[in-house]
Specification:
The protein is built from 14 helices and 9 strands. With about 450 residues, it is mostly helical.
Amino acid sequence: MIQSDPTLTPQKLLRPIERLFDLSDAKIRSIHHSWNSSMGTPVFTVRGRYTSRGWTEWTQGFQFGSGALQFDATGDRWHLDYARKNTVAVMASHVSHTGVHDHGFNNVSTYGNLLRLMREGRIARNPDERNFYELALKCSAAVQAARWSRIKDGRGYIYSFNGPHSLFSDTIRSLRVLALGHQLGHVLMGEMDRRIPLLERLIQHADVTAQYNVYYGKGRDAYDVRGRVVHESIFNTNDGNYRCPSTQQGYTPFSTWTRGLAWIMCGYAEQLEFLATLKDAELKPFGGRNKVEAMMLKAAEATCDFYIKHTSTDGIPFWDTGAPNLHRLGNYLNRPSDPFNPHEPVDSSAAAIAAQGLWRLGKYLASRKRAKDGRRYQQAALTIAHTLFDDPYLSTKSSHQGLILHSVYHRPNGWDHIPPGQKIPCGESSMWGDYHARELALLLWREAKGKPYLRFYNV
């Protein structure tokens, strides 16, 4: 269980954050100078060098979006140019990609960050450039929303790259692009010119995910523990009936893959923030503000509580809460994480994502006059950040292209590098882990400096 340090504040983390961005500068440049684009997209490191892994190209937005975050934190124009040029040159295929559930990852990290910087006045206002970013996000939102399966009661979900039967927990964070599309006044056009509201699909997907992918301790099955998350839910596409839990990257459908848990935590928390910007009339067709917010808040609180309870004291989780050799580690939840243990890997990328969810949920609750609850979540987030931004998780060697060490990609498939002398994967980084560590650092840096709160949308 996380043992939060009550004395931590964003201001106390300023020096570690500034050190992180100092290291980040050279690592982004190193990847840029060494990467051969014919290899595809950098995904994770092997022996400290970024490599590719063909599955889907879901990490390219993190590669170039990292430049936008680096510029935001440091003002270094090289990184802005890097993000801009590569977004124009490389990202168009991701906007029109009909085969994935990853639009919120790829396109909000690039086009979305650049639009945000322009709206904040961080980069010069240029109507043509702004329109370019906005059009890309509108198209991306519609393409993502069109990847739709219906369930028996008429609701639906954005299906994963596995096919129309598959609802991933990851996709909750792709709702960012639907939110932006709605904010920009866009809709998905269907047969016979039917106008399909992006907000409708956002809320339905969130609702179905909350019902089937998140557990609430109500006896749904023998493994129904409040806040537990299943990576994937399977539906019969012939009649829309729910069939069973499943997983692609976790250990079993009846344990919790912690990066999937983290996506849920972060996704619902930031959607709660977004809902607060909408008018009551916009939410009335979906049962009204109270109903929609209650659904998302229930999922966010349950999963954040589960994470806090089922994570090592320093805030870094193992890759799956039911990993088969955890019993060999003894009372591992009552001590700090050990990424070099001989039995099961930790996942620092899950921690970077989860910390942002905890911080955002805490801030949301504080705005709803639940300051005590909000403080509990935010102190847990700061505790995770304090751990990630220091040894043994911060990558300080110039020869290592990763920023945050001890990330895990696909443990069941055996894709992660095991260094000589070790028995489990450790010491490597991932593009999503590095990006979300930068995003977390930027969020807290802005808080410490009294700058505008970091959102994926603009108010």
